[in-house]
Amino acid sequence: MEQRSLRVLDTNKTFFSKITSTLTKMLIPTKVSINGMMISIKRNNLIKAYSNYEIAIKEDDIDKKDALFKKYEEAYSLYLEAIDKYIMDSLYKKVKNNTASEFEKNALAKYYMVVSLKQNQYIEYKYKKQEYLLKVDYESVINLKKQTTIDKYNEFYVSKMDSLYKGLLKNYSIQLADTVSSKVEEINSIYTKIFRCLEDYISDILPIKIRVSKEDYKNILNDYDKYETMQVGKKDERDLIRRQMVLLGLSRELFTHSLPLIAAEQCYIKLLKDARKLLEKQENKMKRERTFELLVDLIEEYNIRLLSTKVYWDKPEEREEYKKFWAKYNEIQKIENEEEKKKQKEILFLKNDLKKLNRSKNNYNKIIKIIKEKLVEEGAIRQIRNTCKTMEGSYKKQVA
Question: What is d(CA 35, CA 54) in angstroms, rounded to the nearest whole number?
């Protein structure tokens, strides 16, 4: 199936080609119904094979489990082939004959994008192809409006999607670790894929899992609700960074091993850089204040959600420094006045960020100046005015 040509060619408008085109249009509905029937049969076989395999796992019957797993894998393969055939026999021909809707055209375009990964990114292609085919048929299952079938299919669907998304994130994490000689555009492309993968999972798969078993996910419901509210209304660059921050926070609960700590840390550092760059660009006072809030929230997320769980540190002195930071943070958490607590946390986070920026080999002079001005405004550091005599008169230099 994968070897078939996927190019959509314009039909030659001769007499014979018009007749062929008309006949093809007449045959498409028949092929669609045949394909639909085949998908339904393969789907039912798959659900049964998956259910039997799950029972064997619970009974811990090793011999039975291995045999049923092979049957399940075979049923899954035949099921995917049936969906793939449906795409080639219906969507492809509909687009070719100009009878496809916009939705069908977009669906086929996405299919081409997935298939195009095969040559250079085979592992990504392998997972993305399965994800795409399963999502295509999921809508058909929902439209059946048979709750028993939907419930049984959902058990298989979320289990398989979990493994596919975990596979994708592991693959992207490996790519991110191997970017020493990569260009900035290539590295940013990997970050984009990671965030898109997390977003797709949390938008499409997590709601199904929460509906099935809300109790299992009560510890992430607050973050999930935050993410849901962020989907509404007009979004700017600051909103995008904040949404990605929430996605990373959720990933620490959902994909602890698939998106390892070292990869998640790189993602947090990337978001911190993005927030600082945004802060540098903004002249409007109100927008700058909101971006400061974002930066502070990001620093807190990075330190509390990630660094607090870090076991291995490359440099022992960094670990000792973090211990001091953690002690100060816990002291601030004891403050009863919420307004004062918020202010002291902001000062702690910005001072901590300032230390890292001053040690960095990169030129962060502009953002260092902005953070210092904010700390002076908060009364956290003093502004010292130095005056010295020059040939022309007096020269004043402000040092924060």
Answer: 28
